[in-house]
Amino acid sequence: MVEGTLAILGSPTEREQRISPDIAAVLSRRPRPFAAWAARNIDAFR
């Protein structure tokens, strides 16, 4: 699915990959990496 989408849309630019500073305001905290979320929730997927 991802490969098909990227084939249509192209790879995201460096600007599109940046995390918006608005994320911290929306979350009321600094954003965390996906890997941190995955590590905290690994048991839910076993």
Characterization of the model:
- The protein is mainly alpha-helical.
- It has one domain (2-40).
- 57% of the residues lie in helices and 0% in strands.
- It contains 4 helices and no strands.
- The longest helix is centred in the N-terminal third of the chain and has 8 residues, at 2-9.
- The protein starts with a helix and ends in a 5-residue tail after the last helix.
Question: How many discrete domains?
Answer: 1
Number of helices, counting only DSSP H or I runs of 4 residues or more: 4
How would you sum up the major sheet? Answer: none
Order of helices and strands: HHHH
Proportion of beta-strand residues: under 5%
Query: Average pLDDT, to the nearest integer?
Result: 92
SS class: mainly alpha
Helical percentage: 55-70%
